[in-house]
Amino acid sequence: MSTIKRLYEKFQPSHYDIFLDINREKKTITGKTTITGNASEQQISVNQKFLTVSSVKVGGKDVPFTVDNDEETINITLPKAGEVTLTIDYSAPLTDTMMGIYPSYYKVDGEKKQIIGTQFETTFARQAFPSVDEPEAKATFSLAVKFDEHPGETVIANMPEDHVSDGVHYFQPTVRMSTYLVAFAFGELQSKKTTTESGVEVGVFATKAHQPKELDFALEIAKKAIEFYEKFYQTPYPLPHSWQLALPDFSAGAMENWGLVTYREAYLLLDPDNTSLDMKRLVATVITHELAHQWFGDLVTMKWWDDLWLNESFANMMEYVAVDAIHPEWKIWELFQTSEAPMALQRDATDGVQSVHVQVNNPAEIDALFDGAIVYAKGARMLVMVRALIGDDALRKGLKNYFEAHKYHNATGADLWEALGKASQLDIGAIMQSWLEQPGYPVVEAKIVDGQLQLSQKQFFIGDGQDAGRLWQIPLNANYKVAPQIMKEQTINLGDYQELRQENGKPFRLNVGNNSHFIVKYDQTLMDDILDHLDELNAIDQRQLLQDFRLLADGQQLSYAEIIPLLPRFADSHSEIVNTALYAIVNKLKQFVTPDSDEEKALKQFVGQLSAKQVQRLGWQPQAGESNDDQLTRPIVLSAALYAENKDAIEAAHEIFTKNHAQLEKLPADIRPLVIRNEVKHYGSKDLFAELLEDYRETTDASYKSDLNGAITSTTDHSLIAELINEFENADTIKPQDLRGWYRNILANNDGQQAAWDWIRNDWDWLEKTVGGDMEFATYITVTANIFHTPARLAEFKQFFEPKINTPGLTREITMDIKVIEGKVNLIQTEKGAVIKALNKAIA
């Protein structure tokens, strides 16, 4: 594939008049786009994809043009360079790819319906209208939409509707913005609206398949988020309204279109009367993420896709800052510790991983940049690190200046570091350079050498890794003042350990608060000291110990066999984040045991011992006045008890299911997935399977849908698994946006793994055709690699994927995921004997 040509260099649009006539029945788009701009040469190009161009006119006269589908351009010869107004007539198909302009399908009272929505990031605006489809090519847009309209339909866009004439809906011109942020939608929609303190109208829109109350939570969060950001950024929200729209079919999680944010239904709508706290926190962070973008990404936009991390990392940090301000009782930064931090640390330890900042050489690579663990999670950790270094006052001052300097224009990472550096009097750019331009992260080893406390840094790898001698500028966050704020050297000596220990009166620790992107390997003396004072550590610090144990063991710098005897010391913690880290290690231990073997029985017995007291303490039902931690910990320990085949837990779940069989949707949301899954596994039948699958098809409650997916895919009946896989390509049962979750769950089911693996290999071409242009496509490879861990599966994985290694957008994923599986195979071969021995000793 060719290298990207920057069209903006030769033609700089300033305004678009876009007319679209959309016929849903015929699945066609007829368009006329008029672009005003400056041409620096007579030969210019604009982007198009799948457009059939009938004419290009300048000043009402036809001009020569050619269409290059490989380059996705219309190449135009102008009468002369300078200020020009182009008018392009074209037609295009309405597709089912969830990109460009596309229909979403849903049912109301059994009747099939559709609404039309858009998805233009990264380079899909060109499927809707000719444009210079590059982030830097900011312009204003006047949108006019006509469609096969019937009474009761609503049409919305980035800006308010101006007027309707002859069935055409005309919208007010936008502010100056990038093409990928243009959006509109129409269909039978319901909405709820409110107004912020500063007068911004906020609305939530959804299909009429949902109960009106499902819009309430999102409306409250969106209103409060905009009010928070206006104060935090000290910059007004730049548009008259902020619409949040739930689309039934949506490939990404959500998209920050300016003034019209689009979401998967699962990430916007929820039943306020029966949704788990976990799901409420997730939905709230998605909404606050997208609204953070309205300033950082939309008002000021990255200059080119290589700075995509700048948009996403920043919004990823700010989603937590905002939710923490709106609902401080949720302790949302603990969610950051259980989601973003481990995701980034796991992925970033594989050799070959991309750096946060990556050059983009061809169009297919743009979508491949959306590596969530790096661009979102690691990048957010970098910014949390910066925030911890400079404090909120400097952060807010720097951001205000950044927005003021670059609003309605574009910026680079260097521009942000300059603004934050001036506000904080720190050379932020130099510190961040080592983190953004280099892949990976360090392990800092703390040890006593000849009585001296020494620290050294070295790149950490899980699996084989090529050590390139990289060094990082590490914010150490040590609890001894003798340690420097930033460690730049490979090795530093902090002085006589006994004197330092006596002087400080507590065990030596690094990365206190777990805000910096590194892990710590303590020698035995230092670790024993920490473990002797375990009760003095808060939840985040205890969690960090468990997190680092797990990663060091994955990297074979510590043995899982050494960790097993330490786990009971954490098992009675009342903290959700400690329990999450504890059972993450337990899940890693499962790879060492063969299903249905004596060694698996030993592991189940060990897990049963770990979870017993907590299950007894928390039970199955919520208790009056219990803490958020208890609510969030209950499903973790009950899941462990069910894995351990705790008979009381299995029978209790069965009893709850039996009593509530007629209304499973109304089961308490935090235990509902466990209850239904337990029933399928231990009391399942073909009738139950059919009933649950029909429930999945009919319900509009996204949380319940997710629970049913997890339950149905846990069946051990091979004939039912085959039936399920037959539904993979039936969009009336499983929408393409949800398919990866179904595939992953059956692959993780020992009784379904072969069937799921056979399906993806046999039907890869169908999968590529259906979701291949999507940024989520490569993650089918990731989820497969995350589950496979045997030599046989490694060989099959390589045999299937290595021939595809030169496919644009898949190269890095395939290369890395082979290493991921190889690392696990090697780890298991090396340590299995010791792990089984340690398990048997633990249950003796």
- Low-confidence spans: pLDDT under 50, at least 5 residues? none
Radius of gyration, in angstroms, nearest whole number: 28 Å
Class based on secondary structure composition and strand pairing: alpha+beta
- For the record, give the distance between the C-alpha atoms at the N and C termini, rounded to a whole number: 61 Å
Assembly status: single chain
Helical amount? 40-55%
Strand content: 15-25%
| Major β-sheet annotation | 8 strands, mixed
How many helical elements?
Answer: 27
Provide the residue-averaged pLDDT: 96
List strands and helices in order, with pairings.
Layout: E1 11-23, E2 28-39, E3 43-47, E4 52-58, E5 61-62, E6 65-68, E7 73-77, E8 82-93, E9 100-108, E10 111-119, E11 140-147, E12 154-157, E13 161-165, E14 168-171, E15 184-187, E16 189-195, E17 201-207, H1 216-233, E18 241-247, E19 254-255, E20 260-264, H2 277-292, E21 300-302, H3 308-326, H4 332-338, H5 340-347, H6 363-368, H7 372-406, E22 409-411, H8 413-424, H9 428-436, E23 442-449, E24 452-459, E25 474-475, E26 486-487, E27 491-496, H10 497-504, E28 519-522, H11 524-532, H12 539-554, H13 560-563, H14 576-589, H15 598-618, H16 628-643, H17 647-659, H18 672-683, H19 686-698, H20 702-712, H21 718-726, H22 739-748, H23 753-762, H24 764-771, H25 779-787, H26 791-801, H27 811-843
Parallel strand pairs: 1-11, 17-18, 18-20, 21-22, 23-28
Antiparallel strand pairs: 1-2, 2-8, 3-7, 4-5, 4-8, 6-7, 9-10, 11-14, 12-15, 13-14, 16-17, 19-20, 23-24, 24-27, 25-26
